[in-house]
Specification:
With 81 residues, this protein is an alpha+beta fold. It is built from two helices and five strands; from the N terminus they run ββαββαβ. The longest helix is centred in the last third of the chain and has 14 residues.
C-alpha cells in the first residue's frame, strides 16, 4: 500500500446502505471498484456508497472486512440503522 492511502477506514451501516469513508481515487479505490462494482463514490457525501438487501448485510460486511484486512487497512464500524 502506498503512503498516500488511508491506514484506517470507517464502515458505516445505514439501513440498506453501506457507507465507506475512504478517498475516491488511488490504488485502494481502484481495487475497491474492481472488488465491489456496485459501489460508487458519492461526491456530495464524500464517501463510497454500496446498497445491500435485507438479509445480506452479514455477508457483504464480511466481504468488506476481508477486503480491507487483506490489504492491511484497519477499519472501524459505525451503526446508524
Amino acid at each position: 500500500m502506498k503512503d498516500s492511502e488511508p491506514l484506517q477506514v470507517t464502515l458505516t451501516k445505514m439501513c440498506e446502505l453501506h457507507a465507506i469513508d475512504m478517498p475516491p481515487n488511488g490504488e485502494l479505490a481502484e481495487h475497491f471498484q474492481l472488488a465491489f462494482p456496485s459501489a460508487s463514490y458519492d461526491d456530495e457525501a464524500g464517501e463510497w456508497r454500496m446498497a445491500w438487501k435485507k438479509g445480506t448485510y452479514a455477508e457483504s460486511n464480511a466481504r468488506l472486512e476481508a477486503f480491507f484486512s487483506e490489504r492491511g487497512v484497519a477499519f472501524s464500524h459505525v451503526d446508524k440503522c
